[in-house]
Write a structure and sequence with these properties.
The structure is a homotetramer.
Chain A: E1 3-8, H1 24-39, E2 51-58, E3 67-77, E4 81-90, E5 95-105, E6 107-110, E7 113-116, H2 121-127
Antiparallel strand pairs in A: 1-3, 2-5, 3-4, 4-5, 6-7
Chain lengths: 132, 132, 132, 132
């Protein structure tokens, strides 16, 4: 079962077109990812997961006061990286607002420079079951 | 010839890993897009170009104080949308930091709701020559 | 009784020092203000309340994963402006993270330019009782 | 002579009122502070200067495409902290957009926790002369 979380849309996320700025969608998705790790008790894993790829299709705008429901599902678990799909629904209008995927690598920061490592077991455990 | 613009990386763009946050890369790219329109004297067109798709691959980190060089090239000009490719170079290290594309639709905001329209001629003109 | 709301601190709010960036504190405070208006059923008033002054003292850092509790209390209700005090507690450490005030004017946007007007009754109603 | 720097205002800095969001003003001011340190060749000092206080009065809006000129002047140099005043002019309209001050402490991060220390001489040197 995918992971789901709901967030209100706030003023500071909007731009002069009166809708959520396109880059803010990624902050929304990452927020849900962090909440998934928090649920699993492994929030600390998130700091060693720099993004390596992201894709998004915007389907409908989000506006201040709308309820954004972010749905996350594991897409692919590799040895040194994971990829998950996301959907953002505007629960105030019932429409799909955006969908896409994010891939992240497992790294250690040694001397400030990220170095690829095998992903920790607890990362896979946090995502377990979301892909069904 | 692609359009190029350079920007310093600032503290507020970084996150707790000490590198530029992945969502901030899209703000950087959009900044260059706006500077391209400004050069062409048509900055106003940008407000009617909501994004419909974005893709990015992260290649190397950007750090505070680094010089980010954003390179933009028209990829596809359609009747009601455009797509452009971007590369972000870290001129402080000589490495490619990220690359991807952004697609945007031409719209009018009638009653707050975006409505697809034909792109204005001045939009194509602003991008002319960047694809060579 | 002051208004209170709790928010998790997320990764994108941090900077390279590993703590919440100082400008993000204002986004946190505004989020609580919007939630206060939402509770009162008058969220729409917030869009016509441009800030005219803000002050903050930073007392202790907030880190990713911490629970920030924002406390708001009406400070002064004038005919064309309001001012409220805020405190941000780090509920994960028990420490006061920041405190200050924000003042906002009541305006109408006529032709894009803000024009001072008398504040609507529902604005005062939303804040009623928070100053006790 | 105060330090001055000019920045274009970009789309992602605006909010649904069509003007720069109030929290973004602090990012603008910090950008100028970083450029002051860069000019003095001491950009690295900025990472050990967490803010302890900030105050701002908003005078007039900034809009996308406007040129913001940020003016910084040292206000007070103490042993373990500095305070500087800022003014932000909208050079596209000739109006003062905002003014205020920011105070920052000199710290070392030992074990992640900031500890107050004496400010480095190069910090004072970077600000020298801006208060005249």
């Amino acid at each position: 079962m995918p992971f789901e979380a709901q967030y209100y849309v706030y003023w500071s996320e909007t731009d002069a077109a009166g809708i959520v700025h396109f880059a803010e969608f990624f902050r929304l998705v990452e927020r849900a990812e962090e909440d998934l790790y928090r649920r699993a008790g492994v929030l600390h894993v998130h700091g060693s997961l720099p993004r390596i790829e992201a894709h998004i299709r915007y389907r409908a705008p989000l506006r201040r006061g709308d309820v954004a429901r972010v749905v996350l599902a594991l897409d692919e678990a590799r040895r040194r990286a994971i990829r998950y799909r996301f959907e953002i629904y505007n629960d105030s209008t019932g429409r799909l607002a955006a969908e896409g995927y994010i891939a992240a690598a497992c790294v250690e920061f040694s001397g400030g420079e990220p170095r690829a490592v095998e992903c920790p077991e607890e990362l896979y455990r946090a995502w377990r079951g979301t892909d069904i």
